[in-house]
């Protein structure tokens, strides 16, 4: 049995719930390359060798269309209907159910298998943060393991530290740890604590070097950690800037840029228009009305910055 899951807390708890619900002793769980929504050669090799495949919390219908094994695909993202007859697609949105009742893949998995526990809640906290506590079931399930809100939030940070440090094997090992250790005990798991301390130290150092123009924070740094979205959120949501243009000049031989704006700038800045400009130049940019993200070759940093700065200068 092969379980392919997202690398974050929701994906990890969804995998643990699936494995427990099925009573699996003989299984392999893997994640795609962190930060890349695709199946690489390693994932495809495991699929070839598997008898049955579960794919959880991965909005990859285009990849699942090509899977030639008996597959169950459980997700909660907006996506198209899969035509592959070997795939059973479980997604409440496709069934026109109330998406608010399924804030995370862990809730979909729990509903599918009729198995609800603190892992279900932890996945929801991982995906929507404090909003998860507005769902009565979240708090009820956390209490069964004696977890407070703050402990749940801290656990999400600890589990997510594996993908933020880009440690694929650690993200996979996290499923085994969730399956076999009480969540209270994982609050003291030393490797995750060390990860988190290093991440927080790096973020603090990066945020000490902000330049500000017209109430927009411009931040540059170099780090192998996938912290760029956290830095942008902190600059806008916690430090109060109207926007943040964040550039990581050295991210695993590539460059990263993340541009986030506050609600006050949504009417003024056409983020989707900027994304389209970048796409027209051949960049694989994505995002929505308040955020833009892009990973690209280092030799095109000046080109990307020129597009962003040129747009802002025209306002």
Automatic annotation (TrEMBL):
<feature type="binding site">
    <location>
        <position position="229"/>
    </location>
    <ligand>
        <name>AMP</name>
    </ligand>
</feature>
<feature type="binding site">
    <location>
        <position position="10"/>
    </location>
    <ligand>
        <name>Mn(2+)</name>
    </ligand>
</feature>
<dbReference type="InterPro" id="IPR038763">
    <property type="entry name" value="DHH_sf"/>
</dbReference>
<feature type="domain" description="DDH">
    <location>
        <begin position="2"/>
        <end position="112"/>
    </location>
</feature>
<dbReference type="GO" id="GO:0008441">
    <property type="term" value="F:3'(2'),5'-bisphosphate nucleotidase activity"/>
</dbReference>
<feature type="binding site">
    <location>
        <position position="233"/>
    </location>
    <ligand>
        <name>AMP</name>
    </ligand>
</feature>
<feature type="binding site">
    <location>
        <position position="284"/>
    </location>
    <ligand>
        <name>AMP</name>
    </ligand>
</feature>
<feature type="binding site">
    <location>
        <position position="57"/>
    </location>
    <ligand>
        <name>Mn(2+)</name>
    </ligand>
</feature>
<feature type="binding site">
    <location>
        <position position="37"/>
    </location>
    <ligand>
        <name>AMP</name>
    </ligand>
</feature>
<dbReference type="GO" id="GO:0046872">
    <property type="term" value="F:metal ion binding"/>
</dbReference>
<feature type="binding site">
    <location>
        <position position="8"/>
    </location>
    <ligand>
        <name>Mn(2+)</name>
    </ligand>
</feature>
<dbReference type="Pfam" id="PF01368">
    <property type="entry name" value="DHH"/>
</dbReference>
<dbReference type="GO" id="GO:0000166">
    <property type="term" value="F:nucleotide binding"/>
</dbReference>
<feature type="binding site">
    <location>
        <position position="127"/>
    </location>
    <ligand>
        <name>Mn(2+)</name>
    </ligand>
</feature>
<dbReference type="InterPro" id="IPR001667">
    <property type="entry name" value="DDH_dom"/>
</dbReference>
<feature type="binding site">
    <location>
        <position position="260"/>
    </location>
    <ligand>
        <name>AMP</name>
    </ligand>
</feature>
<keyword id="KW-0479">Metal-binding</keyword>
<keyword id="KW-0547">Nucleotide-binding</keyword>
<protein>
    <submittedName>
        <fullName>PAP phosphatase from Methanothermococcus thermolithotrophicus</fullName>
        <ecNumber>3.1.3.7</ecNumber>
    </submittedName>
</protein>
